[in-house]
Predict the 3D structure of the following.
Amino acid sequence: MAIETGLLIGGILTVMLYTRVLYKDTILYDIAEHLLLGSATAYIFVTGIKSIMSNAITPIQNEGRYILIIPIILGLSLYTQLSEKTRYMSRIPLSIIVGVGLGLTIRRVLLANLVRYTQTAFRPFMGVDGFTAINNVIITLAMITSISYFLMSRDQTGTYGQVTRIGRIFLMVTFGAYFGGQIMGRLTLLAGRIEYLLKAFGIISF
Amino acid sequence: MKGIEAGDTILITTDVTVGALSMMGGSMTVTAKYFAQRGDVNILVWGTHWDALVVYRTVLEPIFKDLEYGKQVVFYGYIPGQETAVAKLADDIPGLLTVDYFGTPTEDLPIMNGITNAADIDMIFTFDTWGARGYYVGHWFERYGTKICAATSGAAIATIETQFSTGQLVGAAIDARGGAELELLFHMPGRASVTTDTLSLTHSFVLLLLVIGNIQYLRKRAEET
């Protein structure tokens, strides 16, 4: 079975990285870590330059879109952070980034999360099949009790305390589902890496 | 996917790190293979993660090799700017993407004729691990009604379930399991099916470890008391 050089190098580097997990901090781990950081930084740097070229430099050269000089200057002025004397200049692009980001996020969250989720949370109990009705009751109950758990202005005792306790159970189930998903994701990554190693060392061929 | 008609335009977004391909490589491969085999759908590809190029080169390009570049498929590479870029693309695709990854002007690409904003894209297939899906939902679906199918990691299972039940997504494939389900549905067995078998075995092993750990804990506690 033919072993590709690139795959083999990747396999060896993976094993070198695992030495820290399976044994202890070793020189092999340090070498692999520095190689990873160095190559990743170089790759991201080249990707960044490439996107600046295609999004700004090329349109300026080919189409005469000189307006794009402004974002280039704003981008460069971020580097004025490096000097005490010029640091104030970096506040302009930073404030633009934060402002635009905040504006877009608020619009998105209001539309996609707040309005849509609230609309969906109130579902009909009547005029639907039995299973859907039960499901909709659970969703509404989970929403009301979970929100009540976070109302801190009132003591969670008596009947109200029972309601918040139900909310806490719903929250625990939700966090459990999140955690279960995380575990599944991590195990898939591990399985993928093991498959890669088996492929790298020519044990399997898919 | 079968609802996409001949002549429609789809967008594949590779918002995924190359390291996470074990989770989403299967669903991405099936999606790409299905549309490549049909050959009657226009395919736009870009990514908001800097690994977009690596993912395109390793997964998509070999599948699209028989399609005519510029007419049936186009690759725009990594789009920086995260949410700002996704929001701008929803309103004005050729305004932001003036050239493709290889430097060809957008106006010279036949596939881009008539593509102006999110309303011109018939379906998005987003493969993400870091939340770009939410940007497409917020700026493309909510404002233009563009249909979205999403594949994501198991860690995002609760979010994707919510988006699916609210109608923001028309389809979802979660982790390698979702990829394996797609492989089964489209009769294209591949790496996701293999990974799922491995996962089932690993989960059994983890369950066994949990049982052993609990027995050991109870034994230790009994000894102490």
In short: The longest strand of chain B covers residues 9-15. Chain B touches chain A through 51 residues (CB under 8 Å). Residues 18 and 55 of chain B are 6 Å apart (CA to CA). Chain B has a mean pLDDT of 91.
